[in-house]
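Let us practice reading a record.
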Amino acid sequence: MENILSVKGIQKSFGGVHALKGVDLTIKKGEIHCLAGENGCGKSTIIKVISGFYQPDEGTIEIDQKRYSAMTPSDAIRAGVQVIYQDFSIFPNLTVIENLAFNQVLANRKKLVNRKEFRRIAQEAVAKINFEVDLNALVETLPVADKQLIAISRALLENAKLIIMDEPTTALTKKEVARLFEIIGDLKKRGITILFVSHKLDEVFEISDSITILRSGENVISCPASEMNEEKFAYYMTGRHFNTRQLTQKKEKGELQETVLEVEHLSASGFEDVNFTLHRGEILGITGQLGSGRTELSLSLFGLNRPFGGTIKMEGREVDLKDVNTAQSLGIALVPEDRLTEGLFLPQSIIRNITVTRLDALANKFGVLHKKDVIKESENWVKELGVATKNHAFPVQTLSGGNQQKVVLARWLAGHPKVLILNGPTVGVDIGAKYDIHKLLHQLAAEGMAIIVVSDDTAEVIATCDSAIIMQGGRMTGRLESADLTEANLAKAAI
């Protein structure tokens, strides 16, 4: 089988930092090739080199037998390369029609808008993947999965030969991922090559024909997917062997003594009649598909979605979680799912992000903050959670996704909460960071902290939780205790 892409000896540096150190990448026509690696390994950089946004310092690129020492974005598009980034690069304030027709109008340098032509182009685009959508809808009103399909439809309008998908499943539910994989399979049958960039083991093994793994800007291995297993994959990505057995020891119900949080017949916007008890040292999972009410429940427990029915008790005393300040004063902390928009102040330093909730505690009796105390507090947590940074005075946006999540965790752990709620604790983080976070949760529980993990990732629920409640359509439909917490039972309960 001929190669659609051959990348050889690509080097790229930024200000003395070597992002790529002689990377090679070969992809055959019509295959699904996975490019994997931890955050910061060079995946995004090599994508931008292939698509012409970065010029390599050294090396060559061959696309469909044509060699380039350097290329522009226009060269890449003409060669049949299309990139679908995590943000999809679409215009949220334009309609589906306008998003799909925009590129062609620009390419043809048309000055007048022909609405009938716009609609024809859009209809042709969505028909290629059997995508049903309101063409007149504003893109910002659509779910994430539909935005993903719009980006794919647009790529196909450009007669793409190679479609690069950068972490395409990060914000998708399992049902949406399954639909995406069906479409990718159809594209493969039509001879279109897919470069699938991901670090999710289950997805990689489900969809990939071959795999290339990068670490620290260098090739570690390239091989058929059939020659890889999960243990090898994790090792090649991180250079570490993980002892997952220590994360699977569950507490039985009889082992749990002191009750920390009680929820009885709780109802609020998005859910109703939820009941559960959370004990000291317990990790409770709340799982369900998108729209199940799991996120709304977590917000209510942190004073962001005020209940209109039922009761909440902290350590035996009924409480009114009317706002975030009340929840915090009672010892409740929430790590949100979207760390970029809800959990972090991206331009601010790592120091400020960690200590922002601790300023009152760090100030002296006159309300004065001493810089050295603030820095010391930050340093302690950076060390404690293993945040990988050269300087914690750097903006938090310079960190990888996994390290950003550790900073969010550090902020709330610094307040020593009694109840820690984590909504999607490892969304968008790599294997190594995921393992570190799961290990940390078990350590915190062993020290007596009560923890709630809100997740639709069944593997995560099994790896971290002692028990789990299942939600569907805004209602609690079941609870699985430690002995019954399996993939099969979770799947059955979610039906």
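A brief commentary: The longest strand covers residues 3-14.
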